[in-house]
Amino acid sequence: MVLSPYDNDEFAEIREGVRRLCVEFPGTYWRTLDENRTYPTEFVRALTDAGYLSILIPEEYGGSGLGLSAAAAVLETIQAQGCNAAACHAQMYTMGTILRHGSEEQKQAYLPKIASGELRLQAFGVTEPTSGTDTTALRTFAKRVNGDYVINGQKIWTSRAEHSDLMLLLARTTPRDKVAKKTDGLSTFIVDMRDVVGKSLTIRPIRTMMNHATTEIFFDNMHVPAANLLGEEGKGFRYILSGMNAERVLIASECVGDAKWFTRTAVQYANERQVFGRMIGANQGIQFPIAKAYAQMRAAELMVKEAARLYEDGKDIGAEANMAKMLAADAAWEAANVCLQTHGGFGFAEEYDVERKLRETRLYQVAPISTNLILSFLAEHVLGLPRSY
What does pTM read for this prediction? Predict the structure, then answer.
C-alpha cells in the first residue's frame, strides 16, 4: 500500500536506508524498552553510525550538509516504521540555533564530535515549572563572574538529559524588570554536562505515560565558560526561535509518520480480520474513518513540506511551522483513534503496538507547543485579532 507519492521524491534513497535500519528494531524491541522505561541506546547508535543524526551538520564538520527537508524525511520514516525518533530528534532541531548563531570556534569544537557520535547533543533546556510556554518569564539566571557564567535555576521536561553530553540552555542574563522588551536579556549557552552532572547540575527523571526519558534539572552555582555563550549576550530568545521553528517542523514530520503507521496498520488489520463471515474492511463504518484519516495525513504532509521549504529559503516560518505542527499532530491523533477503533479490543493489547504508539503520539497535542497557543498565535499574528493572553 502506497500512503504517499512522496515515497519516490528526492529523498527516496534516504527513506529506504532508514527503513532498512528500522527493520532491525521491531515492535518487540520497543515494547521491552517501554516496559522497562529504558533508553533505546542501540537504536540511537545505529542512526548515528549511519549518519542520519548528522544530516544537518555541514560536510566540513563531518555531516551530510543537507537541509531541513532531508531531516524531516528521516524522522517521518522512523515513525512510519513503528519506531520512535523522540529518543534523538533534538540532535537535529538544535542545529538551527548552533549553525546560524554559533561561532566558528564553537562549531569546530563540537560539531565534528556530534557528527561522529563522540558527543551527544540531545538536551534542550528551556521550559521551567513556573513559566511553561511563557519563555520570557523563565527564572534561571546566568551571572557573569570573571571568565565564567554562574547559573542557578531549574528546568523541567528536559528530555534525554541523562543520555546527553551537551545541552542547549536558555537563561536570563539581565533581569526581566531591567530590559526594554521582555524578549531581551535572555542568552543561550552550550553546556558540557559531563563536567557538572552530580556536582552543580542535578538530574531527576520524571516517569510519564510513555517512555520519553524526560527529566527535571536543577542548577546550583553551575559554572559555564564565557566561550560557551552562543552569539551575543541578551539575544538568546531570537536565537532559540529559529531552533523552535525547526523543532516544530521536525516534530510535525514525525506526526505525519505516525499517521502513516496508524493508517497502514488499520488497513492491514481491516483486510485480515473477519467478523460475521466477511472482512471488516468491507464495511463503510470501518472504511470511511480510515479514508478520512488518510486525507488528513496528506494535507498535513503538504503543510510540513511547505514549511520546510520556506525554512531552507531563509524565510520567517512562524506561522507555517505552527500550522504544520498543529495539523500533523491532529492528523496523527485522529489516525491513532481510528486504528485503535479498527482493532477493537486487540488494539489495547501490547503485542499489537497500537496502544504504545497512541501514547507516544498523544504527546504532540501538548508539546512542543499546545494547540491552543498555536491558535492564539495565528489569531494575533496572522489574522490581526486582539491578543488573547
Answer: 0.95
